[in-house]
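Propose amino acids for all 544 sites.
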């Protein structure tokens, strides 16, 4: 009997020494629920500096600092103590008088076993005599994609200074959900300036790009009504006015590439041996968007070169100096082969377009007497266009016919690049697409009455998102995109407020909203020998 009693006592003591979590049984899909909250939520004349939740099951706390949103914000992130089924939150800040506070836990609190989130967990109290009960609601979309933005901070200010988002934490906060919706609750009766911020940091201040910002040009008034879609706000990335180099690297033998954060203004670049100060000849190509500078540098004649200084300037006043460490392994130089691609896909070509060779290196010479075009079994005369694309492309121009089979052949040595490499024998067989290979596309664009006379720019994009054709319209127009290769195309448009032909983002200091975009819903499937007609009434998330 004594032994049995001793065992029971030992089990009791060990059970009291450590809290354990029950395991096993049916999978729990119910999130934790509060059993008690001290002080009670919606308390007035709040004097405490902490509150405690007791839940109906064991919980875990995940990313407390990242998930907790306090409105109005505190200077320091509150601390928490989690033990078993309890969660205590405390802070050292002095609370504002006569103010309603809310602590939104986001997805921080979950049950222990299955991770079911206690969604909608909000603790509200007032340091005054009553709980403020008004709200401001709306929806936030990305200005470039029109997609809803999740977890953007909606910031409300009682003050009216233009510098508010740069210098001052907001008076009240809310977060957008997965659908981009927000509802700033428990607000006093007041008028607010409203900003939206997608932060890189968590200081509740706008630090400029790459952070995104959105704003309403006019103040908003808190109300009792649930105006979920009353305020529609585009979130945008301002154009960074400070030019800098995002990335630079020697990608291949003799090839150097620089990526800018902004389109460069007619850049000038010089490559100089760091030891001998020898300046190397280079062929340079700025991308169509102006944000990438590609250079092919003739460094073969000085194999001892290990380090090259790269001096860069442009017409905007930007300048920088880079160092290029050149690979000295002889294999690196030997691998600098001249490699071509031919503009023939699947053995077929558009008979109304030339066939072209595109090389990885600029050419120094192209001997067209070594290039032959065979139509069926007969060699025919063609016209070769001059070298293009910094001497990397040569075109073979000929009135291709539907029936014959063609063979384009370049003898060994027909091409020589700037590094002294000669091409090997090149050959490609092909025929022209029949006329019924192509399809056509016509789109009738109908602008809403409120948007008539506004300039609307419409662009068709291929499956690789390359622009195919662009139209500018101001009224209902039937757009004929002509002959197209079979593929699934997309259609995009924007309202060109300043008539410069380009989509422009917003600028907070200048009070400019981003130009509004519209996307045709779905894809336009162009098929061979088929005339596709479509209607489009451009819609945007920001339409009233």
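Proposal:
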């Amino acid at each position: 009997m004594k032994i049995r009693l001793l065992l029971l006592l030992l089990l009791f003591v060990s059970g009291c020494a450590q809290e354990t979590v029950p395991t096993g049984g049916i999978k729990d899909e119910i999130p934790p629920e509060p059993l008690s909250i001290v002080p009670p939520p919606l308390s007035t004349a709040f004097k405490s500096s902490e509150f405690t939740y007791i839940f109906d099951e064991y919980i875990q706390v995940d990313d407390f600092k990242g998930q907790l949103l306090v409105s109005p914000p505190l200077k320091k992130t509150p601390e928490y103590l989690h033990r078993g089924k309890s969660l205590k939150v405390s802070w050292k800040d002095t609370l504002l008088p006569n103010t309603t506070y809310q602590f939104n836990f986001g997805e921080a609190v979950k049950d222990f076993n299955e991770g079911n989130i206690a969604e909608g967990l909000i603790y509200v109290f007032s340091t005054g005599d009553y709980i403020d009960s008004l709200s401001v609601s709306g929806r936030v979309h990305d200005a470039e994609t029109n997609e809803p933005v999740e977890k953007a901070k909606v910031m409300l200010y009682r003050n009216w200074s233009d510098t508010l988002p740069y210098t001052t934490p907001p008076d009240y906060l809310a977060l957008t959900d997965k659908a981009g919706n927000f509802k700033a609750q428990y607000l006093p009766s007041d008028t607010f300036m409203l900003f939206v911020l997608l932060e890189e940091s968590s200081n509740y201040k706008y630090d400029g790009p790459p952070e995104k910002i959105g704003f309403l040009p006019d103040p908003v008034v808190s109300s009792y009504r649930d105006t979920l879609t009353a305020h529609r706000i585009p979130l945008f990335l301002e154009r960074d006015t400070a030019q800098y180099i995002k990335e630079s690297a020697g990608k291949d033998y003799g090839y150097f590439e620089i990526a800018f954060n902004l389109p460069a203004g007619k850049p000038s670049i010089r490559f100089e041996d760091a030891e001998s100060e020898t300046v190397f000849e280079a062929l340079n190509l700025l991308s169509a968007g102006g944000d990438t500078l590609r250079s092919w540098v003739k460094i073969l004649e000085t194999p001892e070169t290990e380090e090259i200084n790269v001096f860069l300037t442009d017409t905007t006043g930007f300048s920088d100096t880079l160092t290029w460490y050149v690979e000295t392994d002889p294999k690196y130089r030997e691998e600098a082969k001249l490699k071509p691609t031919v503009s023939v896909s699947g053995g077929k070509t558009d008979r109304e377009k030339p066939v072209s060779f595109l090389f990885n290196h600029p050419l120094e010479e192209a001997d067209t007497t070594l290039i032959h075009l065979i139509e069926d079994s007969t060699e025919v005369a063609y016209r070769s266009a001059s070298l293009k694309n910094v001497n990397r492309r040569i075109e073979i121009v000929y009135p291709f016919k539907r029936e014959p089979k063609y063979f384009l052949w370049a003898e060994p040595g027909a091409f020589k690049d700037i590094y002294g490499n000669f091409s090997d024998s090149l050959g490609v067989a092909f025929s022209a697409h029949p006329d019924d290979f192509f399809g056509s596309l016509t789109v009738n664009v109908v602008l809403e009455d409120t948007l008539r006379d506004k300039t609307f720019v419409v662009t068709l994009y291929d499956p690789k998102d390359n622009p195919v054709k662009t139209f500018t319209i101001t009224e209902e127009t039937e757009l004929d995109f002509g002959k197209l290769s079979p593929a699934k195309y997309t259609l995009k448009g924007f309202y060109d407020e300043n008539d410069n032909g380009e989509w422009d983002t917003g600028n907070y200091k200048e009070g400019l909203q981003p130009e509004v975009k519209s996307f045709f819903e779905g894809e336009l499937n162009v098929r061979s020998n088929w005339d596709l007609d479509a209607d489009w009434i451009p819609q945007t998330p920001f339409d009233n």
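The helical segments are 2-17, 64-67, 164-167, 330-334. The chain has five domains: 34-126, 134-235, 245-332, 340-433, 437-536.
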